[in-house]
Design a protein that fits this description.
The structure is a single chain. By secondary structure, the protein is mainly β. The protein has four helices and 24 strands.
């Protein structure tokens, strides 16, 4: 764990990066690229708008140097300074490629948004408790399966959001045999400022591309579902997804159990073979992000749990695993006449760690105390299939994921030696439950070169018991209008409906602390957002 001085140094660096970002935004909205090439020493500034039509306000600064003479002085073209340098003799050969180049690029963006949320939620009232739980309660006893059925939603209303802002530093080099480089992205979101991505890579046309660092890997890059068509930066595809209330135990439609997100990993993508590519990502620890503390009692989505585990009891361990592996294959082809296709298939597995959590045995009443037990979990076995078809300006895409029983307690953990049933509230299901599946379908229509509309429907389902399920469906309409390369307007509307089950809600409440909110039985939410994105 880093010492305080290291933390202070990291905070100082991050603040410095953001200060540079703000200064650059105030001065210009054009990305700046520094390119170094071998040859005669020369420095010049060119406006790509004069060279390439449609690339507005993209200023590129080229720094050329003689690789055989390292002591060359910079030249200020405006001051008309001149200098002498050894000239490198180059062959007059049309097949000669200018190699050994190096580029450094600074770019970034900031989003600003107004959002509104309307929730109409029904909280569990303690009725229809499944007989299999066998909860005993005297008539005058305080309920142990509910807190307050009239609990009100606290997320309604309008809000202005500064959104997220990021500054990216790209460094890319090339030799006569391979390419290499790095990306560092510093992001500010809500009250947090951190390094969102840190990537290093090496690439060769014959071998493929190797990446390492903190980024989304094969389980993201080899997916071409309707979810990927969304254009706006908020709503179901962005930072205020948390404003949408899902009913207890319902899955978020965005990713399967075991999704490695931006955890520290190694990643490989092969070259193209007749339209086919294969990919591989290896994440040693599903809770490992750079130098951050590996605390299994915090986090949910970042570790790929996706609402599988009851929130609210922050002192308990959350499911996660070691040796997370994603293997994928994709196919893409441009058939001509406006027809294109992309498809992907991804498998995810890991060695899921045991977890220590509260359990109940036999009959439960107000005097029953939970027992902390170590529970063995199923390893992750998830998969994703997706397909995208484009004809001219219309794209249709769909996807499906299935998580099986990933990260759920193994079947034998639900029974004692004396054959009595063990209840494990944190997972909100019994031994017949699963980790669920989801599917989506969407379409994007590019009405003009600058304006596009997208509509996507998501559906999720998770088995709680043999007869009960938790389901959710989300419909999203998004639009964006690109005024120029640096300025875009966007809007999004999300409609969510989700429904839980009495069994899931009962277990959720058993797992919560006394003052926690009651379980959500039914949710109906409407979210709308509109804003702008400024990039440079």
């Amino acid at each position: 764990m880093p010492c305080n001085n290291d933390v202070n140094m990291q905070n100082t660096l991050i603040k410095s990066f953001l200060a540079v970002f703000i200064l650059v935004c105030n001065a210009s909205y054009s990305a700046i690229t520094f390119e170094v090439k071998p040859g005669n020493a020369n420095v010049k500034t060119q406006n790509k708008k004069q060279q390439q039509k449609g690339n507005n306000n993209k200023n590129t600064i080229f720094f050329k140097y003689n690789k055989d003479n390292k002591d060359l002085n910079d030249v200020n073209k405006n001051d008309k300074n001149k200098f002498n340098a050894n000239k490198t003799k180059q062959k007059d050969d049309s097949n000669t490629v200018d190699v050994n180049t190096f580029k450094f690029k600074i770019s970034g963006y900031a989003t600003f948004c107004g959002a509104g949320v309307a929730n109409n939620n029904v909280y569990y009232d303690g009725s229809n408790v499944p007989e299999s739980i066998k909860i005993e309660q005297a008539p005058n006893e305080k309920s142990i399966v509910k807190y307050d059925a009239k609990t009100k939603a606290d997320k309604d209303g309008l809000d202005l959001i500064a959104g997220e802002a990021a500054i990216k530093f790209n460094a890319d080099g090339e030799t006569d045999t391979f390419k290499y480089g790095a990306l560092l992205e510093v992001q500010a979101e809500k009250e947090d400022i951190d390094i969102d991505k840190a990537i290093g890579y090496v690439e060769n046309d014959q071998f493929g591309k190797v990446r390492f660092g903190n980024f989304k890997g094969t389980d993201n890059d080899f997916v071409f579902s309707g979810q990927k068509l969304l254009l706006a930066n908020f709503g179901i595809d962005g930072i205020i997804t948390s404003q949408l209330d899902y009913a207890t135990g319902c899955l978020n439609p965005r990713f399967p159990i075991g999704f490695a997100n931006k955890q520290t990993k190694f990643d490989y993508c092969s070259p193209d073979f007749a339209g086919f590519k294969v990919g591989f990502s290896y994440t040693p620890d599903a809770k490992h992000v750079g130098h951050a503390k590996r605390d299994r009692t915090i986090g949910d989505k970042s570790a790929g749990n996706n609402n599988l585990y009851a929130k609210g009891n922050g002192e308990e361990e959350k499911p996660c695993g070691h040796h997370n592996i994603a293997v994928g294959i994709q196919y893409g082809n441009d058939f001509g006449n406006g027809w294109k296709i992309r498809s992907g298939l991804v498998f995810i597995t890991e060695r899921t760690q045991d977890i220590t959590t509260n359990c109940y045995s036999g009959e439960i009443n107000s005097e029953t105390k939970p027992e902390s037990k170590k529970i063995k979990l199923n390893n992750v076995q998830s998969w994703i299939a997706s397909l995208e078809i484009t004809y001219n300006k219309l794209t249709i895409a769909g996807g499906y994921y299935n998580s099986g029983k990933s990260r759920l307690p193994r079947a034998e953990e639900y029974t004692n030696d004396d054959k009595t049933t063990i209840i494990i509230p944190a997972f909100m299901c019994d031994k017949d439950g699963d980790a669920g599946y989801a599917w989506n379908i969407g379409a994007k229509l590019k009405i003009t070169d600058k304006f596009a509309l997208t509509g996507v429907y998501h559906n999720t389902s998770r088995k709680i018991t043999k007869t009960e399920k938790a389901r959710a469906q989300v419909f999203t309409i998004a639009a964006d209008y690109e005024i120029n390369k640096n300025f875009a307007l966007f809007g999004e509307i999300d409609v969510l409906n989700s429904k839980s089950s009495p069994y899931a809600c009962t277990l959720y409440n058993l797992n919560q602390k006394e003052k926690a909110k009651n379980a959500l039985m039914i949710t109906n939410s409407l979210l709308f957002s509109a804003g702008m994105k400024i990039s440079f």
